[in-house]
Amino acid sequence: MTDAPPILEIDRISVHFPMAGGGWFSGPAPVLRAVETVSLAIRPGETLALVGESGSGKSTLGQVVAGLREPTLGTLKFHGVPMGKAEWRAARKAIQIVFQDPFSALDPRMPVSDLITEPLKIQRIGSAAERRERAAALVAQVGLPLDALNRYPHEFSGGQRQRIAIARALAPDPSLIVADEPLSALDVSIQSQVLNLMKGIQEERGLSYLFISHDLAVVNHLADRVAVLYLGRLVELAPRASLFAQPSHPYTAALLDAVPRIGRGRRRRGRSLSGEMPSPLNPPPGCVFHTRCPKVQAICKITPPMLEPAPGRPTHLAACHFKE
Amino acid sequence: MTALDTSPPRVEQAQSVWSLRWKRFRGHRTGMIALGILVLLVLFTLSAGPIVAWTGIDPDATDLLSRYDPPSAEHWLGMDDAGRDELLRLMYGGQISLLVGLVSTLIGGVVGLGIGLCAGYFGGRLDALLMRFTDGMIALPLLPLLIVFGAVDLTKLGFSSEFAHSGAAGFWRVVVIIAIVDWTQMARLVRAATLSLKERDYVLAAKASGASPFYVMAAHILPNVATPIIVAGTLTVGRVILLESVLSFLGFGIVPPTPSWGNMLNNAQELVTTAPALAVYPGLLIFITVIAVNFIGDGLQHAFDPRSSR
Amino acid sequence: MTGFVLRRCLQALLVLWVMSFVIYGLIGLMPGDPLDVMIASNPGATPEIVAHLRQIYGLDQPMPLRYWHWLLDALHGDFGFSRTHSEPVLIVLAPALAQTCKLMLISFVLSVVLAFALGVAAARKPGGWVDGFVSLFAFAGISVPVFWLALILIIVFAVQLHWLPASGMGTVGDNGLIDQIRHLTLPVATLTLASTGQFTRYVRAAMIETMRMDFIRTARAKGLGEGRLVIRHALRNALIPVVTIMALSFGTLFSGALVTETMFAQWGMGKMIYDSILANDYNLALVGLLFATLITLLSNLIADLAYGWLDPRISLK
Question: Predicted ipTM?
């Protein structure tokens, strides 16, 4: 990781979904605020982990970065260039995505060689012969045997399919891969294999990951920086070591406390969260976390906090009136 | 000390999904029997040409003196109501009926496919519009509509009188009007399948690489809806054959002198009293064909989806 | 709920209106001309007289304009005159409509009852010989050409055995109920047999599906006899979707009814439409077709509403 300019910059991205309902008699239609004013940057060669529970909006944000969803507000800049429709066409090969479910990520009707080189085919890169060569190289890189090329997805296990999906993402030689919970559907023993594979590929190629996950143990292994989302809002953004050693936002602290530590001492008490995440259709006023926060005060219910550095740690940002 | 196997790894052909399916179809007894029957029927109809060449009988020669002649050594099933050889009429009629079934299914299938794909993939207002239209068509009484279409005078549409009365025009008219009313089932089927398929992750992955809607539909959606389309198409052939036969029977489909299993029963009331056997043969052939096609369709359904209930 | 009903009614009206326009146009493409008969019967009709007549009857106006006039008349209840019957169209069609509805309803009820009996019997032991027989019967039912079935029935019961009349609605001079029933038997039998096939398949499939469900296994484990009790449990659950599909199929019986009426000389809507197209009586054909469309639309609407009302899980949006 260098001080090179970021390859991806997100500036106050919001994704709103207008819902059915409303009309002349019932007032305005409800709006689902999946992502609300998130700003991030990803540097070359770095892994930025995007962490949150279900409903936090992390998948939606991942889709925006991968170009699968248009943000309602805000801008996205790739290599400093603001992305409009025309820019996306060229950028498609530089940003790729790996999905959570290895079973629906691959078209069951296509052999592996076609699956892997599909991004090249769509982007019209290389001749058929060149694509075949590339497929063989990629298959080797993800640790699968050469005869896998002529086989069909149903002949492979979950972990192997995920490798195929990774090979597909690598085919157009991207600079950024959005990995949307790539390990969540795999058995634990397989997870570490695929995780190591991804790490190795990153070191080799110097590409960046936007690694979306709800599993903090995995994040601890792979991430350089961690961004924490709650109800579509960015509540903490910090280097990994700093976040895990001393989280600044109460939500992050509670998340870390909830991770079971097998054989490593007792859990710290007193920081479990009450209640459930509120509905993104009706976010609480002020700080959205105030309904569950153990530190809640009057100001939290009125004024939403800004994302600012924690006291004494300029690279560790948190959105809390009482950050540590 | 064991020697290292340094030979390059063999790249084997995987057992494709299709050979698996053919195996399952082969195991379905009624489906295979039905397929055999259908093949026999097709061969039966196609043997008209060779028989004419071999025996020298003119299939179109009418001879009013030989009307309703009983079966003889020369004319195995006897003569029909105009003195033509009944067996040959059945064969040629079969060719026409089967051909109408096939062509009409293809045309209607393509139309239904197109409409279903667009409606399902693009969604939104296009979907709503197309579905209103489809639902409207489904709500119409089928046969009366076909009769009206069939009764249209082609000369009023600008065709020459000579063309309008030719056999080719008659054939294409029937094919087109059946295709016009029969595409709705395919459209609904394809739309439902497309709706579920377009959300799959592999479609999203293709889109992330910049795939156009056209590419997605051709490369990902179509191959995955192939199986229900094939089953539906097979059943459609049966339905179309029935439609053509009733239309021709009523006089609005294939008109004589071109034979069709349906129009061979045109003056059925007369046949019933004078030569009941002649009233039985054409309908029996239609019945056997359609039931065979339906059984094949059933067998295909089991071959493609072994989980479906018997 | 009322919003749903209103919307469906409006949709039905829209379809009817579009159909009236389309059919009006199509009928204009039919062979012949309303004036042809007049010209044929009057050798003295010179081209000038014919042109003049055309003008008087408005036949030289463009089609959309003629359609508009027809529509205005129709909305006032004037559907024109039937040339072949020499009476206003509505007077000709009303009894025909009643006759067709009678035929369709009787056949529908009979085939539903028959389908349930057969389907339930088949589902009790899937794969057994009863099931095999019923499945074969059902396949035959959906594969048989209706007109040929009618022919076979006529040959067997009317010509060979002389048990039933081959056609007609009644013997001349006999208005008795028995005679009417005798004349109605073969047509109803034809239409019933033709529709039972597809209904049986629905019932059988739904019953087999339901019998597989966990709550049936529980009932059996509790000791409920296989016979009527389990059937009753399963049947009640399978009933709603099956009846809905059947009700939605009621409209499709019209095509079968058309053929049946034509074969057995029953003076219903189907035969009316058929005869009127053959005889170039286009006023009658047009209105007859619209009535046929109306029957189908109405039956679909009623089926949709009944389904929405019966199944509490459906929200009528």
Answer: 0.85
- CA B147 to chain CA centroid, nearest Å: 19
Nearest to A115 by CA among A173, A190, A170: A170
Closest C-alpha among B223, B228, B231, B281 to residue B31: B231
- The tens-digit pLDDT sequence of chain C (317 residues) is 677 778 888 888 888 888 888 888 888 788 777 666 666 667 776 777 777 777 776 676 777 888 888 888 888 877 777 777 888 888 888 899 899 999 999 999 999 999 999 988 888 887 788 888 998 999 999 999 999 999 989 888 887 788 887 777 777 776 778 888 888 888 899 999 999 998 998 888 888 888 777 777 777 777 777 666 667 777 777 777 788 788 888 888 888 999 999 888 888 888 889 988 888 888 888 888 888 888 888 888 887 777 766 665 554 44
Residues of C in contact with B298 (CB under 8 A): 139
Contact present, C157 and C166 (Cβ < 8 Å) = no
B291:C29 CB<8 A: no
Q: pTM of the prediction? A: 0.82
Nearest CB among B9, B11, B209 relative to A118 is that of B209
Q: Do the strands C81-82 and C87-88 form a parallel or antiparallel pair, or are they unpaired? A: antiparallel
Q: What angle do the packed helices B167-182 and B86-122 form, to 10 degrees? A: 40
CB atoms B207 and A68 under 8 Å:
yes
| Number of CB pairs, chain A paired with chain B, less than 8 A apart | 73
Across the interface, whether the CB atoms of B265 and C30 are under 8 A apart is answered: no
Residue whose token pair is 């040339």: C83
CA atoms within 13 A on the CB side of B18: 7
Give A101's contacts in chain B (Cβ within 8 Å): 201
B138 close to C296: Cβ distance less than 8 angstroms: no
CA B113, chain centre distance (Å): 15
Nearest to A230 by CA among A321, A323, A319: A319
Q: Is the pLDDT of residue B8 over 70?
A: no
Whether C212 and C234 have beta carbons less than 8 Å apart is answered as: no
How far does the CA of residue B6 sit from the closest CA of chain A (Å)? 14
Residues composing chain C:
317
Give the distance from residue B306's alpha carbon to the nearest chain A alpha carbon, in angstroms: 16
Which residues, 6 or more positions from B13, have their beta carbon under 8 angstroms from its beta carbon? A150
Question: Which residues, in sequence order, are CB contacts of B101 under 8 Å at separation 6+?
Answer: B237, B238, B240, B241, B244
The nearest CA of chain B is from the CA of C9 a distance in Å of 13
pLDDT of B4 over the 50 cut? no
Amino acid at B124: G
Report d(CA C67, CA B148) in Å as an integer.
Answer: 17
Q: Residues with Cβ < 8 Å from A46, sequence gap 6 or more? A: A1, A208, A209, A224, A225
